[in-house]
Amino acid sequence: MAKLTSRSDDYSKWYNELVVKADLAENSGVRGCMVIKPYGYAIWEKMRDEMDKKFKETGHVNAYFPLFVPKSLFEAEEKNAEGFAKECAVVTHYRLKNDPDNPGKLIVDPEAKLEEELIVRPTSEAIIWSTYKNWIQSYRDLPILINQWANVVRWEMRTRLFLRTAEFLWQEGHTAHATKDEAVEEAEKMNKVYADFAENFMAMPVIQGLKTPSERFAGADETYCIEALMQDGKALQAGTSHFLGQNFAKAFDVKFTNKEGKIEHAWATSWGTSTRLMGALIMTHSDDLGLVLPPTLAPIQVVIVPIFKGDEQLAEISKVALEIQAKLKAKGISVKFDNDTHNKPGWKFAEYELKGVPVRIAMGPRDLENKSVEIARRDNLTKETVSIEGLDSHIENLLKTIQTDLYQKALNFRKENITNVDSYEEFKKVLEEKGGFIYAHWDGTAEEEEQIKNETKATIRCIPLDEDVEEGISLISGKPSARRVLFAKAY
Amino acid sequence: MAKLTSRSDDYSKWYNELVVKADLAENSGVRGCMVIKPYGYAIWEKMRDEMDKKFKETGHVNAYFPLFVPKSLFEAEEKNAEGFAKECAVVTHYRLKNDPDNPGKLIVDPEAKLEEELIVRPTSEAIIWSTYKNWIQSYRDLPILINQWANVVRWEMRTRLFLRTAEFLWQEGHTAHATKDEAVEEAEKMNKVYADFAENFMAMPVIQGLKTPSERFAGADETYCIEALMQDGKALQAGTSHFLGQNFAKAFDVKFTNKEGKIEHAWATSWGTSTRLMGALIMTHSDDLGLVLPPTLAPIQVVIVPIFKGDEQLAEISKVALEIQAKLKAKGISVKFDNDTHNKPGWKFAEYELKGVPVRIAMGPRDLENKSVEIARRDNLTKETVSIEGLDSHIENLLKTIQTDLYQKALNFRKENITNVDSYEEFKKVLEEKGGFIYAHWDGTAEEEEQIKNETKATIRCIPLDEDVEEGISLISGKPSARRVLFAKAY
């Protein structure tokens, strides 16, 4: 197996190679669409299940809405339509027919043209709010707290596996509320749920904040987000939660009678995370040997590799290995005993390093004699010899330690790569020489934001929600600024 | 709440009303596409989770393939294309633009026409086998045992909620094997997995069999199926498993080197079940009061309804109700305590009957005095008074009993509605007067099958796989027949 390109040689190439070589995903025969391979999908399933649990714990239920949005519905909320119409898949016909000129070939049947074109959903606010219209009459029908797991399509021109694909998998929450306060609270709550998931499950520190008006979701009054820092110093938006005001309720005429008997438009939120998180996961933890996975997300948490010559040794090692496997499984730890005789131990070591298996147990005849095994951590590549007695508890604790260490390592990296700057010159210098997150002052105008973006490619990732407020003078205009905002180049 | 139309008055209307009134699904603004509402989706989630567990237990893994199939890939397997091209959604453009003549309106941008049209997948053999081509080189790459949970689109002209919709949710297994025997075994195994799921989880008896050549999946060499009998005497195909031979391997040039070093085409299966199972579930168990759910699939297994006057009584009842709820939850039973003060107990009783909650506990002040509650079973509408002491174990057992009873009831219904007939005249008479499954002899030709279908609308549901073989003379041609086959009118 050829080695991965190293991160320092070509970060982008390293990422692309790793996604394919670790069997996570690959490009398909359909432009911009990926195939998520079983190993990658198993990780996504763990993300999905954990998020789904958190959504249900916070009172949400799942439902399913149509894949297609009729053009007229799509048009109803103008900003949303404007934001998504430029990159969407349009269904215009509902039948193919045999090509009379080319036997065995099919052509679009011109007689099967749809009266109204259908858009493959790029996001579901339009189709969902046109449905909510029939569900909401009274304040007693509110709140509606629905989430959907679905595929969506955005016709991106430049695509990259997981990070930006024409089709991707995601969840989209769509809630309706009787009051503005309640909707704002929901949007904030779900952004916190995302932050909690990212930090405690993905071991990926994030900064919670608000988008500037120009970076908001098309149709939102306010967009909350979580922003993570990748190893190459670029930011990745890992989840967004939108307070949609009454925009969609007005566009789709969703009104209800409130407690006081008055008729009002409902208040809305939507919030989403996607398979993009897979990209974030990879770029937060992995190294030049391959994937590094936090134990929470590893399809295989522990692999046992026997070191043996001949069937007899394998049989002896297997006996002990299977006992260890059983004990670990009893503790809810997923274990693979790789007794394949085709591949050598060295090959297996490299393979499981590539796949990011958090803990490797190696066992040879000598280990058996000593009643011990060799344990290797994938995250920091350290090895230790551990007694077989009590091994299950040792590994249980080790997995927790790895989870914590991964988070701490990523947090340290972020700390080292956040710079406070106070002049535009310094800003450009840091951005070019170091990258990472930059905290700087901004005058609050779209003009300054735009100029910085055009001149440096850095955008305002968010206006952080933390309490760390410090007044200053904006980078270019020199106007007063109430607090620093977070800049970075971004995926 | 207006009563449901009764099954005897208008079965079809009863079904449509029930689906909507029990909050399972509704028609959307998109022709033929449904909205699966939270209550319906919660049931589907339980089906999905159980099937997913069974697939994993039988060695399968999940993956995800693109929504779109380029037209040229779709054409590659001729029969498959022929079978699905006539009812598919075709994406021809990738952008909308502002309509210069109508401000606020969008039109398809003629400059954004795709070079090659994309079909929204009606089934994924083509896209998946074009991918497997790159995954399969040696017998060591086989078998591939993949399942996908996805949405698919078939442009059906006449649609009905769950039973036949333009878009539906399903799972599709796609496996590749080194030998014919192994592929046949897989197709048979998965059909059995479906039968096991239907009978033991949905409490729905099914007959396992083979489709006749004219009823096979387009592109299959053999189609296995499970057939269930609905309460109106019509059959419903609840799952299919296909042995695809080497058809897709040949169409997509998927070859491998076998153990002997020879190059061969791979062998394939595919197998699927869909949200159609929701329709089967409803029509197997429900009655004129509403939904009847087997406990395994009920989002709420037990509802506690307090009977009270005034806050004080409610508070006293609540105390005991919450204790009962906690004990039931500890046993893994899902319980809702409906302490809503807006709706009367009678309204609640009707509501939970409509929703099919298997067990209702009613508690008033008198019950509290007697340290007992009233328990009502949804399936047979019987009531009993039960001591609060030991109630949790009582209910745990009761849920098991209900599950078994529902299966037995459906099995009895099927037994009563299977008729052996030996003449075409009798066949037509039974079909008209009684309906149900008919076991009759068939000469094995497409002609006789076609004639019977044209004249009676009954189709051969399957050639059963059971051992109950009895020779005879076919219905119309009078030719010898090795065994009876299963006829019925079908959904």
TrEMBL record, chains A, B:
GO CC, one annotated term: cytoplasm
Pfam families (UniProt xref):
HGTP_anticodon, ProRS-C_1, tRNA-synt_2b
Reactions catalysed according to its record: tRNA(Pro) + L-proline + ATP = L-prolyl-tRNA(Pro) + AMP + diphosphate
Main localization is cytoplasm
Gene3D superfamilies, per the entry: Anticodon-binding domain, Bira Bifunctional Protein, Domain 2, C-terminal domain of ProRS
The molecular function terms of the Gene Ontology recorded here are: ATP binding; proline-tRNA ligase activity
Q: How far does the signal peptide extend, from start to end residue? A: none
Which HAMAP family does the protein's record reference? Answer: Pro_tRNA_synth_type3
Recorded family membership: Belongs to the class-II aminoacyl-tRNA synthetase family. ProS type 3 subfamily.
Q: What is this protein called?
A: Proline--tRNA ligase
Source organism of the structure: Chryseobacterium piscicola
The organism that produces this protein has a lineage beginning with:
Bacteria, Pseudomonadati, Bacteroidota, Flavobacteriia, Flavobacteriales
